[in-house]
3-dehydroshikimate dehydratase (Streptomyces lomondensis), 598 residues
Amino acid sequence: MRTSIATVSLSGSLTEKLDAAARAGFDGVEIFENDLLASPLTPEEIRARCADLGLTVDLYQPMRDMEAVPEAEFARNLRRARHKFELMRRLGADTVLVCSSVSPQAVDDDALAAEQLSRLADLAREFGVRVAYEALAWGRHVSTYDHAWRIVETAGHPALGTCLDSFHILSRGSDPKGIEDIPGEKIFFLQLADAPLLAMDVLQWSRHYRCFPGQGGFDVAGMLRHVLRTGYDGPLSLEVFNDVFRQAEASPTAVDARRSLLVLQEAVGRAVLPEPVVPTGVAFAELVTPDAEPFAALLGALGFTRTARHRGKPVALWEQGDARILVNTGPAVRRDGTQLAAIGLESPDPAGAARRAEALLAPVLPRRRAPEDVPLDAVAAPDGTELFFCATGRPELPDWRADFEDTGRPPAAGGVRGIDHLALTQPWHHFDEAALFYRGVLGLTTRESVDVADPYGLLRSRAVTTADGGVRIALTVGAAPTDDTVHAQHIALATDDVVAAARRFRAAGGSPLPVPANYYDDLAARFEFADGELETYRELGILYDRDDRGVFRHCYTRTIGRVFFELVQRDGGYRGYGAANAPVRLAAQHAVRALTGG
Ligand code: MG
Ligand code: MG
C-alpha cells in the first residue's frame, strides 16, 4: 500500500521534512498548512520539489470550523475555502481535510452541516478538489467517526467523503467495527497514530503524546483491518503530534515512522517481510574502552577469566559460565569513551536475522574484519549499539569465537551462569523508536513501561525480552534531553547464589556499590526475613525485591566510564528488574560520583 506522512510529524523546515520523508521511502505527504505558510517556497516550487523527490501531495490540512454555522458566517467560510482551493490547485493537492467544527457559532444540526458541507464540496469540485470530513475527538457537536459519516452520507455529494483518524476513534473508545459500514470509496483518507494510554484531556493527549503505530497502547492494527475490509485503497498516512519528535532530527524520525508502517502492514497481511528470527540468547556483550586495566581488575574480581584474544584486533574475551564479555581497546572506540558498544545475539539464522533487520530499515554495518575472519552480520540499533547476529558452538554455523585464540587459561567455575539482562540508556528521542525496533526487527516482546525516580529526574524504563527470558534488554530514558550521558549502561550477570557471588567479589578486592542503612531498615518493615538474612544483605550491599511469583536479589559494582555490572539472583520466576530498588541504586551512584568526581 502507499504510505504517507503529515509534515507536522517531523521537525525542521518544510524542505527538510520533505527530504526526510522521501529518504525514508514514503510515497507521499500531507502538507500541514503552517508548514506551507512558513516556507519561503511558492506552492509551485513545493509541488516541483515533491515531484523531484518522488512524493505526491496526498492531503492539504486542515480546514477548520466550516460547517453548521449561520448563513452569513458560512458565506465567509466559503470565501476562505475558495482561497485554499486555489492554493491547492497550485500545490497539486487534490484532497483537503475538514475537521469537525469546534466553533462556538456552530449549531447542533446535522441537516445544516450536511447541506453546508455539500455546498463546500460543490465549490471544491470546481477546483478538482475532494473534501474529507473528519470528526475531531473534541469536536463541538460532531466528535465520533460514525456521526461524521452519517453527515457525509446525508449530503450524498461525490466530492465529499470522510477522513478516519485512528487517534480520534480509539482515544474515545469508539468501536471501530462500525467502520465496515462505510463504503471504501467514501473513505477519502486514513490517518494513523498511536498513543500511550493516559487519563488526560483528549485535546492535550492528541497534541502532545501521539506516537507511531506500535509505540503506544491502541490497537491500530485492529482498526486498520476494519478499514481495509471496506476496500479502502488510499494511502496509510501518519499524523503524529509529539513533543519529542518536534525536537528530534527529522531523518531518524522519518525512518522510525516508515518502520512502524512496515510492521503495521505486516500485521494486517499487506506486506511480506523476511520472517523475524528471534534470538535465543546473548552470545557476548562488547565493551569499548581506552583502558582495559580497570575492566581486567573488575572482571577478575567477578570471577571471569581472560580466555582468549582476537587474532587481529586488540579485543580480549573474558568468560564465566555462559557469560562472555569482550573488552575492545581498538580504534573502534568511540570518542565518548567507555561504553557497552555491541551485543552478540545468539541467532538460529544470522543471515535471515540480518535480512529482516535490513527490510525494516536498520542500518547494516560494514563487516570490520580481516579476510580470514568469520563473517558476522551486524546492524545498528537506534541508539547506535551494534547488534551482531552470531552462533556459539553450533557445528552448522560459523562460530564467532574462531576469530579468537586461546590464552590457555580455561574459565574458572565461578558463581556466574550467564548474562541475565543488558540495560541500555537511550538517547532522549529514541526511546519509543527503540522499543518498536526490538519488537519489529528482533521479534522481542515489549513489557510495560515503568517510571523510576532518580534524585535528579525521572527515568522511564521498558524491557524487551524473548518469551523464555533468554534475551532481556532493559531500555531506559531520562526525562530530559540533557540526561543522555548521565545514566550508565549495565550488564547484569545471573547467579544462583548472589550472597556467595558478592562475598567472592569482595574477597577478590571488588568494591560493591554502597547501599544506605535506611534502605535495609525499610526492607525489614516491608518483608519478613530469616534470622541473619537481612544482616547479610546489609553487609554485602544486596538489594531485595519480590513479585507475585518470586524473589529478586541483586547488587552492583562501581561504574567505569558509563558501564557497571550487576549480580542478580532470580528465584521462583520473578519477572522484573528490581525497579523498586532503582531509586536507591541511582542515588548511591550519584553519591559515589560526587565523591570521586567520576
Ligand atoms: Mg487527523
Ligand atoms: Mg538491572
In short: The chain has two domains: 3-267, 281-596. The mean pLDDT is 93. The first strand starts at residue 3 and ends at 6.
